[in-house]
Amino acid sequence: MRMVDLIEKKRDGKELSSEEIQFIIKGYTDGAIPDYQISALTMAIFFQGMTESERADLTMSMVESGDKIDLSKIEGIKVDKHSTGGVGDTTTLVLGPLVAAVGVPVAKMSGRGLGHTGGTIDKLEAVEGFHVEIENEEFIKLVNQNKIAVIGQSGNLTPADKKLYALRDVTATVDSIPLIASSIMSKKIAAGADAIVLDVKTGAGAFMKTLDDSRELAKAMVRIGNNVGRKTMAVISDMSQPLGFAIGNALEVKEAIDTLKGEGPEDLTELCLVLGSHMVVLAEKAETPAQAREMLEQAIKDGSALEAMKTFLSSQGGDASVVDDPSRLPQAKFVYELEAKEDGYVSEIVADAVGTAAMVLGAGRATKESEIDLAVGLMLRKKIGDTVSKGESLATIYSNFENVEEVKERLYSSIKITASKVDAPVLVHEEITE
Ligand code: URA
Ligand code: CA
């Protein structure tokens, strides 16, 4: 096989075979095929697209390019959840204990990463003593025992995707649905998921800004998953504003605890119930999403979801007393209110910009080397559609430095107020099962 012939084939809109795709991904991972040929190929894919079987082959070739996590010693169907990214997305912290409480095994491999706030692991480290440096055996034992454990990323997962993503980033080929879909799915499958629930965000703060694009991405991922034998479904949810109120590490841990107590923000609670219901169904612990939802609501009501959170935290060295006393979480030195300058209705909360304001406070990493301040961040006091009176708080700023003028300015320009009534955005747009 010659790479140049395969580029030509894709350029002319023909379908690549399984063997050809395996040859490309193996050659690229090994270094036998150079970046410039893969650049030409990804550009051809950008214009010509990929068929369903090409997408499945690309996904599985990337899975095979590195280590795969073996979760076979964990009893039950391992359902993973993936969100396509957003601002203040606390769903993972809620969903883990919530579905574990009804018997769904949650074997989560998580990362730190760059962003407005830390990743799931950073957030959990706001709990004194909590750590994810555990051996694989311990991890598996904990999931079998408690139905939930989190381990840090280890091993060499999907190296082909890492190389390809970095190359796409500098060749204007990130925005290709088949390439995005196979990139995301390859990582979930390599991490050991038997079934996958996807939370595809849509709106100003999301990777996909329009409902059409989000739907197309969701469908592409659901098809890949089902074509490679992993039951997969997707929920398209709103990210035109941040989810919940908290944006920050310790603040989000507290918000997750509140939600598990049944006292969380309405939107976060609802999305967790929707996503959680599908996880429970895919794990075959309930027949229908409605039945699953009842089980989850019951777990919140009777305290078993909260109990699962405590067990989870203490099993990994964490101080579980934060669940009853969240004031034990890291606290910021300075607290300021962002007072509304006029009366009206909140019409916009630009999620990206609010996220950046939290990052300026130190809640997230701008570069890999940045240190996160777990105590700081923002609590929104209003959501789109809410009425506001002049002087009322739009958000609370938790900071470890005294001067927050820049943060305030950023927030004032991203939280917009109008005189006329505004409807709250729809939270769950669609559910895609194929
Ligand atoms: N996220 C990914 O993991 N891969 C992509 O290609 C795009 C977003
Ligand atoms: Ca939140």
TrEMBL record:
The keyword Metal-binding applies. Its cofactor is K(+). It is an enzyme of class 2 (transferase). Its EC number is 2.4.2.2. One of its GO terms (cellular component) is cytosol. GO terms for molecular function: 1,4-alpha-oligoglucan phosphorylase activity; deoxyuridine phosphorylase activity; metal ion binding; thymidine phosphorylase activity; uridine phosphorylase activity. The keyword Glycosyltransferase applies. It comes from the Bacteria. It catalyses: thymidine + phosphate = 2-deoxy-alpha-D-ribose 1-phosphate + thymine; 2'-deoxyuridine + phosphate = 2-deoxy-alpha-D-ribose 1-phosphate + uracil; uridine + phosphate = alpha-D-ribose 1-phosphate + uracil. It holds the Pfam family Glycos_transf_3. Residues 345-418 form the Pyrimidine nucleoside phosphorylase C-terminal domain. GO terms for biological process: pyrimidine nucleobase metabolic process; pyrimidine nucleoside metabolic process. Keywords: Glycosyltransferase, Metal-binding, Potassium, Transferase. Belongs to the thymidine/pyrimidine-nucleoside phosphorylase family. NCBIfam families: PRK05820.1, PRK06078.1, Y_phosphoryl. Homodimer. Catalyzes phosphorolysis of the pyrimidine nucleosides uridine, thymidine and 2'-deoxyuridine with the formation of the corresponding pyrimidine base and ribose-1-phosphate. PANTHER family: THYMIDINE PHOSPHORYLASE (PTHR10515:SF0). This is Pyrimidine-nucleoside phosphorylase. The gene is deoA.
